[in-house]
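Ticket #4471: complex job returned nothing on first submit. Input attached below:
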Amino acid sequence: GQQVMQIPQYQHVQEGEDFTTYCNSSTTLSNIQWYKQRPGGHPVFLIQLVKSGEVKKQKRLTFQFGEAKKNSSLHITATQTTDVGTYFCAGPRSGYALNFGKGTSLLVTP
Amino acid sequence: DAGVTQSPTHLIKTRGQHVTLRCSPISGHKSVSWYQQVLGQGPQFIFQYYEKEERGRGNFPDRFSARQFPNYSSELNVNALLLGDSALYLCASSQPDPGQQFFGPGTRLTVL
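Support reply: We reran it on our side without changes. The output follows.
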Protein backbone atom coordinates (compact mmCIF):
# COMPACT_ATOMS: atom_id res chain seq x y z
CA GLY A 1 0.00 0.00 0.00
CA GLN A 2 0.90 3.65 -0.22
CA GLN A 3 3.55 4.85 2.20
CA VAL A 4 4.45 8.42 2.98
CA MET A 5 7.89 9.08 4.42
CA GLN A 6 9.25 12.27 5.94
CA ILE A 7 12.74 13.46 6.75
CA PRO A 8 14.23 14.59 8.99
CA GLN A 9 12.45 13.19 12.03
CA TYR A 10 13.67 16.05 14.21
CA GLN A 11 15.15 19.48 13.57
CA HIS A 12 16.48 21.91 16.12
CA VAL A 13 17.21 25.44 14.87
CA GLN A 14 18.05 28.82 16.28
CA GLU A 15 15.38 31.46 15.85
CA GLY A 16 15.90 33.18 12.52
CA GLU A 17 17.36 30.14 10.76
CA ASP A 18 15.55 28.44 7.89
CA PHE A 19 13.92 25.01 8.09
CA THR A 20 12.94 22.44 5.47
CA THR A 21 11.11 19.13 5.73
CA TYR A 22 10.78 16.65 2.90
CA CYS A 23 8.03 14.20 2.10
CA ASN A 24 8.21 11.23 -0.28
CA SER A 25 5.46 8.88 -1.39
CA SER A 26 5.85 5.34 -2.69
CA THR A 27 3.10 6.06 -5.25
CA THR A 28 1.95 9.01 -7.34
CA LEU A 29 -0.39 11.24 -5.40
CA SER A 30 -3.45 13.06 -6.68
CA ASN A 31 -2.77 15.70 -4.06
CA ILE A 32 -0.78 16.22 -0.89
CA GLN A 33 -1.76 18.01 2.27
CA TRP A 34 0.32 19.51 5.05
CA TYR A 35 -0.69 19.77 8.70
CA LYS A 36 0.87 21.29 11.79
CA GLN A 37 0.44 19.88 15.28
CA ARG A 38 1.51 21.99 18.23
CA PRO A 39 2.69 20.15 21.36
CA GLY A 40 -0.37 18.80 23.15
CA GLY A 41 -2.64 19.80 20.29
CA HIS A 42 -4.28 18.25 17.28
CA PRO A 43 -3.32 18.42 13.58
CA VAL A 44 -4.35 21.65 11.87
CA PHE A 45 -4.58 21.92 8.10
CA LEU A 46 -2.03 24.17 6.43
CA ILE A 47 -2.40 23.64 2.70
CA GLN A 48 -3.27 21.28 -0.13
CA LEU A 49 -1.22 20.97 -3.33
CA VAL A 50 -2.78 19.43 -6.41
CA LYS A 51 -0.83 20.31 -9.54
CA SER A 52 2.51 18.88 -10.66
CA GLY A 53 5.30 21.36 -9.82
CA GLU A 54 2.94 23.54 -7.79
CA VAL A 55 4.45 26.08 -5.41
CA LYS A 56 2.38 27.90 -2.82
CA LYS A 57 3.42 30.46 -0.23
CA GLN A 58 1.89 31.41 3.09
CA LYS A 59 3.89 34.27 4.57
CA ARG A 60 7.19 32.64 5.60
CA LEU A 61 6.09 29.12 4.56
CA THR A 62 6.73 27.78 1.04
CA PHE A 63 5.20 24.51 -0.10
CA GLN A 64 6.25 22.59 -3.21
CA PHE A 65 4.79 19.57 -5.00
CA GLY A 66 7.19 17.61 -7.16
CA GLU A 67 6.90 17.27 -10.91
CA ALA A 68 6.23 13.54 -10.59
CA LYS A 69 3.70 14.17 -7.80
CA LYS A 70 5.56 11.77 -5.52
CA ASN A 71 7.39 14.25 -3.32
CA SER A 72 6.80 17.52 -1.56
CA SER A 73 8.59 19.94 0.71
CA LEU A 74 7.82 22.62 3.26
CA HIS A 75 10.32 25.43 3.77
CA ILE A 76 10.10 27.98 6.57
CA THR A 77 12.14 31.15 6.22
CA ALA A 78 13.49 32.84 9.33
CA THR A 79 11.89 30.56 11.90
CA GLN A 80 10.14 31.97 14.94
CA THR A 81 9.31 30.32 18.25
CA THR A 82 5.69 30.17 17.13
CA ASP A 83 6.76 27.70 14.42
CA VAL A 84 7.45 25.02 17.05
CA GLY A 85 5.49 21.84 16.44
CA THR A 86 5.36 18.74 14.28
CA TYR A 87 4.73 19.10 10.57
CA PHE A 88 3.01 16.24 8.77
CA CYS A 89 2.47 15.58 5.12
CA ALA A 90 -0.44 13.37 4.12
CA GLY A 91 -1.55 11.71 0.92
CA PRO A 92 -5.10 10.62 0.13
CA ARG A 93 -6.21 7.03 0.54
CA SER A 94 -9.46 5.51 -0.62
CA GLY A 95 -12.42 7.60 0.33
CA TYR A 96 -11.68 10.89 2.00
CA ALA A 97 -9.18 9.75 4.65
CA LEU A 98 -5.43 10.33 4.66
CA ASN A 99 -2.13 8.48 4.97
CA PHE A 100 0.13 10.54 7.21
CA GLY A 101 3.88 10.54 7.36
CA LYS A 102 5.60 10.25 10.74
CA GLY A 103 6.19 13.98 10.80
CA THR A 104 9.12 16.30 11.40
CA SER A 105 9.33 17.82 14.87
CA LEU A 106 10.69 21.36 14.83
CA LEU A 107 12.21 22.94 17.89
CA VAL A 108 13.15 26.62 17.73
CA THR A 109 15.51 28.07 20.32
CA PRO A 110 15.29 31.83 20.96
CA ASP B 1 -19.36 27.77 14.04
CA ALA B 2 -18.41 24.96 16.38
CA GLY B 3 -15.53 22.75 15.37
CA VAL B 4 -15.27 19.01 15.72
CA THR B 5 -15.97 17.93 19.27
CA GLN B 6 -14.86 14.75 20.98
CA SER B 7 -15.63 13.18 24.33
CA PRO B 8 -14.27 12.32 26.73
CA THR B 9 -11.05 14.33 26.75
CA HIS B 10 -9.14 11.80 28.79
CA LEU B 11 -9.85 8.22 29.75
CA ILE B 12 -8.06 5.65 31.88
CA LYS B 13 -8.96 1.99 31.47
CA THR B 14 -7.46 -1.34 32.44
CA ARG B 15 -6.52 -4.19 30.15
CA GLY B 16 -9.48 -6.23 28.94
CA GLN B 17 -12.00 -3.44 29.37
CA HIS B 18 -14.09 -1.86 26.66
CA VAL B 19 -14.17 1.82 25.66
CA THR B 20 -16.48 4.04 23.61
CA LEU B 21 -15.26 7.32 22.17
CA ARG B 22 -17.61 9.91 20.68
CA CYS B 23 -17.28 12.52 17.97
CA SER B 24 -19.52 15.25 16.59
CA PRO B 25 -18.50 16.63 13.18
CA ILE B 26 -18.71 20.17 11.97
CA SER B 27 -22.26 21.04 10.97
CA GLY B 28 -22.82 20.07 7.35
CA HIS B 29 -19.95 17.58 7.22
CA LYS B 30 -21.12 14.09 6.40
CA SER B 31 -17.76 12.32 6.47
CA VAL B 32 -16.10 11.28 9.72
CA SER B 33 -12.73 9.57 10.02
CA TRP B 34 -11.00 8.10 13.05
CA TYR B 35 -7.24 8.07 13.57
CA GLN B 36 -4.97 6.64 16.25
CA GLN B 37 -1.87 8.63 17.11
CA VAL B 38 0.76 6.97 19.24
CA LEU B 39 3.29 9.29 20.87
CA GLY B 40 5.94 10.36 18.39
CA GLN B 41 4.09 9.00 15.35
CA GLY B 42 1.74 10.38 12.73
CA PRO B 43 -1.99 9.71 12.88
CA GLN B 44 -2.87 6.21 11.65
CA PHE B 45 -6.16 5.75 9.83
CA ILE B 46 -8.69 3.47 11.56
CA PHE B 47 -12.11 4.03 9.95
CA GLN B 48 -13.95 6.38 7.66
CA TYR B 49 -17.72 6.78 7.49
CA TYR B 50 -19.74 8.72 4.98
CA GLU B 51 -23.52 8.98 5.10
CA LYS B 52 -23.60 6.30 7.80
CA GLU B 53 -21.74 3.76 5.68
CA GLU B 54 -18.20 2.51 6.23
CA ARG B 55 -16.05 3.78 3.37
CA GLY B 56 -12.68 2.59 4.55
CA ARG B 57 -10.89 0.64 7.23
CA GLY B 58 -7.25 0.74 8.22
CA ASN B 59 -5.06 -2.09 9.39
CA PHE B 60 -6.58 -2.50 12.84
CA PRO B 61 -7.91 -5.67 14.51
CA ASP B 62 -11.57 -6.55 14.78
CA ARG B 63 -11.53 -5.30 18.38
CA PHE B 64 -11.97 -1.87 16.81
CA SER B 65 -15.39 -0.98 15.47
CA ALA B 66 -17.27 2.20 14.69
CA ARG B 67 -20.57 3.53 13.52
CA GLN B 68 -22.11 6.76 12.32
CA PHE B 69 -25.52 7.98 13.39
CA PRO B 70 -28.23 9.77 11.36
CA ASN B 71 -27.02 13.13 12.71
CA TYR B 72 -23.51 12.22 11.39
CA SER B 73 -21.98 11.93 14.84
CA SER B 74 -19.85 8.85 15.33
CA GLU B 75 -18.66 6.38 17.93
CA LEU B 76 -15.44 4.38 18.03
CA ASN B 77 -15.53 1.23 20.14
CA VAL B 78 -12.53 -0.76 21.25
CA ASN B 79 -12.98 -4.12 22.99
CA ALA B 80 -10.53 -6.15 25.07
CA LEU B 81 -8.17 -3.24 25.55
CA LEU B 82 -4.43 -3.86 25.35
CA LEU B 83 -1.61 -1.74 26.73
CA GLY B 84 -0.69 -0.91 23.13
CA ASP B 85 -4.05 0.77 22.59
CA SER B 86 -2.86 3.69 24.70
CA ALA B 87 -2.86 6.63 22.32
CA LEU B 88 -4.53 9.85 21.26
CA TYR B 89 -7.66 9.04 19.27
CA LEU B 90 -8.50 11.72 16.76
CA CYS B 91 -11.74 12.27 14.92
CA ALA B 92 -11.80 14.32 11.74
CA SER B 93 -14.68 15.54 9.64
CA SER B 94 -14.62 16.70 6.05
CA GLN B 95 -16.78 17.75 3.14
CA PRO B 96 -17.64 15.18 0.45
CA ASP B 97 -14.93 16.46 -1.87
CA PRO B 98 -11.54 15.08 -0.84
CA GLY B 99 -9.95 17.99 0.92
CA GLN B 100 -8.82 19.16 4.28
CA GLN B 101 -9.65 17.20 7.35
CA PHE B 102 -10.87 19.15 10.36
CA PHE B 103 -9.59 17.42 13.46
CA GLY B 104 -11.12 17.43 16.90
CA PRO B 105 -9.03 17.85 20.05
CA GLY B 106 -8.81 14.08 20.51
CA THR B 107 -9.38 11.63 23.34
CA ARG B 108 -6.30 10.62 25.28
CA LEU B 109 -6.73 6.93 26.20
CA THR B 110 -4.44 5.33 28.76
CA VAL B 111 -4.64 1.58 29.28
CA LEU B 112 -3.09 0.29 32.51
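Chain B touches chain A at residues 31, 33, 35, 40-45, 48, 50, 55-56, 58, 90, 94, 96, 98-106 (CB under 8 Å). Closing as resolved unless it happens again.
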